[in-house]
What does this fold into?
Amino acid sequence: MNSVKCPNCYAIQEWEKVKGRFNTDFKRYNNHIKSFNELINEILDGETEGTFARKTGLSHNMFSRIRNYVNKKDPPQRSTLISIAVGYNLDFQITARLLESLGSGFTLSNERDYAYQFILTNCRGKSVDECNDILECLGVEEKYWLGAHARRPESNN
It folds into this structure.
């Protein structure tokens, strides 16, 4: 007999994955007193420029920049941070904490920010490209899309 307590809406193996993700997210969120650099380096620990670029759609150079040079005085574009959140399957709370550690945050009365929150909450596990399709269907301007779109100089936070 299996001793794993599992909600009826999940198969046991699926529940173990969901619960594992919960435990990982909870641990990351409760490490909230860390700086942006500490948090992002924990998230990107063991990654390479290549895997980073594949997961996020961002450039190889962004991997080094995000790990070593980003801070409150030189924050990344919001779409860059959301690209990382989607690529690394981060939840809304962890992503909000990353923004807060840079002196920013989500403004849920802003349609773009609400769309970002929507994909982080309702579309976890989707790729950057799939999330761009969702953003397009939600009416978000292309300059605020993720991945390669986040590299465009005309994009704003």
Notes: The CA atoms of residues 47 and 112 lie 29 Å apart. The radius of gyration is 16 Å.
